[in-house]
Amino acid sequence: MTTRDTIANGLSRRDLLKLTAAAAVMLASRNAIAADFHRFQHGTFDITVVSDGFLTLPAEILLPDATLEERQAIMPRLGGNAATAPVQANIPLIRHGEDLILIDTGSGSHFQASAGKLAANLKSLGIAPEAITKVVFTHAHPDHSGATTTIDGKVLYPNAQYFVSEAEWAFWTDKDYATHMPSALHDFARGAQRDLFAVKDRLTLVRPDQEIIPGMRIQQTRGHTPGHVSIELAGDGGLLITGDACTNDVIFFENPAWHFGFDTEPEVALRTRQMLLDRAATDKLKMLGYHWSYPGVGYAERKDASYRFVSA
Ligand SMILES: [Zn+2]
């Protein structure tokens, strides 16, 4: 399967934006941002999972490989209906020494209106945008890097140093993207360029295995995008902040052979996800998933030939 096939079969960003306000309102009550924030210690890291809100995704994107019966069984378990389901956006705020680090910035005003709540939630925790010292991107999709700038083009976290993988930068900043990428990716490319170019003068390009600070290491988890990375924190057997290497805690734990409709390199993403879940189950690795049920912290437990998500 090629990138073009998958994207062509999927919905564009515009289609997603068009999802009805009524559906969003209906889901909002069920998916209200957790009033109390999930906070825990991992090794020397103090972590608070702050919600950016939620996104509504269509079944064609969430579980394209499922049969109709499987869809009907799974979609309600995600809190959705037959056509769409909500997915959370969990952003770890990591305190370490003098650092206050965000892994991804969320959607800001550049994606669905049910997301983009991170800055407001940080404020309710007493954290001003100026206090953030580092932002590490797992990848440059609009629901992860969209809040780099405010709606009037200002950098939202003015004192932060930014980190993105070399491969992610190279993929999205291709000046000939219009001819090199299928048209369904053009909106994403324009969004990634908007976000990455806005912080170009304070952006560090990183490679897999590189450390951001002692104990915080970049891990290659390519496939969702060509430069997608996860972030691993040392201590207590490790904590892997997975980003979108595994986009749902029900669908892909229980069906690790299924594709996700927004993976740019579907087969690479599939292998990455399978290796990740296998390692996580074998090593009892703690994980934090961006789109998993809030707060998205837990483990993969083997169940026959698949897995079960076990909340930490
Ligand atoms: Zn995402």
UniProtKB/TrEMBL annotation:
<dbReference type="GO" id="GO:0102007">
    <property type="term" value="F:acyl-L-homoserine-lactone lactonohydrolase activity"/>
</dbReference>
<dbReference type="InterPro" id="IPR051013">
    <property type="entry name" value="MBL_superfamily_lactonases"/>
</dbReference>
<feature type="signal peptide">
    <location>
        <begin position="1"/>
        <end position="34"/>
    </location>
</feature>
<protein>
    <submittedName>
        <fullName>N-acyl homoserine lactonase</fullName>
        <ecNumber>3.1.1.81</ecNumber>
    </submittedName>
</protein>
<dbReference type="GO" id="GO:0046872">
    <property type="term" value="F:metal ion binding"/>
</dbReference>
<keyword id="KW-0732">Signal</keyword>
<comment type="similarity">
    <text>Belongs to the metallo-beta-lactamase superfamily.</text>
</comment>
<dbReference type="InterPro" id="IPR001279">
    <property type="entry name" value="Metallo-B-lactamas"/>
</dbReference>
<keyword id="KW-0862">Zinc</keyword>
<dbReference type="InterPro" id="IPR019546">
    <property type="entry name" value="TAT_signal_bac_arc"/>
</dbReference>
<dbReference type="Pfam" id="PF00753">
    <property type="entry name" value="Lactamase_B"/>
</dbReference>
<dbReference type="InterPro" id="IPR006311">
    <property type="entry name" value="TAT_signal"/>
</dbReference>
<keyword id="KW-0378">Hydrolase</keyword>
<feature type="domain" description="Metallo-beta-lactamase">
    <location>
        <begin position="88"/>
        <end position="291"/>
    </location>
</feature>
<keyword id="KW-0479">Metal-binding</keyword>
<dbReference type="InterPro" id="IPR036866">
    <property type="entry name" value="RibonucZ/Hydroxyglut_hydro"/>
</dbReference>
